[in-house]
Amino acid sequence: MVILNKIYTKTGDAGETALGNGARVAKHSMRVNAYGTVDEANATFGLARLHAEGEMDIQLSAIQNDLFDLGADLCRPDMEKDAEAEYPPLRMLSTQVDRLEAEIDAMNDALEPLRSFILPGGSPLAAALHMCRTISRRAERLTVELATMENVNPAAVQYLNRLSDWCFVASRIANNDGKDDVLWVPGANR
């Protein structure tokens, strides 16, 4: 259980922060950039929820919770010491990836195939989901880069990869099942 009784600690005033294992690192470290961008993505999902209802809102809520799990996973670098930890660290699981895939497949079944690239926009929810998509892609790029330097849970990378796909398909659902997608017209303004 988390208890936050004091919000500022002043321990980061010199440009460092603590990871989940207690190690102190620079706030601009690759790991902090990765999980910080996951947090940024989570905030955009919160904005998208302002426009969502029903099943879409339920799915977005689950994603927000997953993104907190993902941040917890990324802030704990020493995966090889998980078994020795006093409390088992929270790690992303393949079942979370599987759930996203099932939701993507279910949403995609309601859509006609694309015959053009689409521009981000349309309904307010679709536009917000495109923001979620692009920030999730940035989080994925940073996490993949981190994985070239340090140990990263493969399920974390897979989740981020599926998440941006989920956002794309969900944006089409939010655009009247794709009927109101804004299509790209190559060279339209030449």
Explain the overall architecture:
With 190 residues, this protein is mainly alpha-helical. The protein has a domain at 43-79 and 88-181: Up-down Bundle (Hypothetical Protein Ta1238, Chain: A), CATH 1.20.1200. 53% of the residues lie in helices and 5% in strands. It is built from 5 helices and 4 strands. The chain has helices at residues 30-49, 54-74, 94-108, 124-147, 154-174; strands spanning 16-18, 24-26, 118-119, 182-183. The chain has a two-stranded antiparallel ribbon. Helix 1 (30-49) packs antiparallel against helix 2, helix 1 (30-49) packs antiparallel against helix 4 and helix 4 packs antiparallel against helix 5. The longest helix has 24 residues, at 124-147. The chain is elongated. The relative contact order is 0.15. Residues 7-173 form the Cobalamin adenosyltransferase-like domain. It comes from Litoreibacter roseus. Belongs to the Cob(I)alamin adenosyltransferase family. One of its GO terms (cellular component) is cytoplasm.
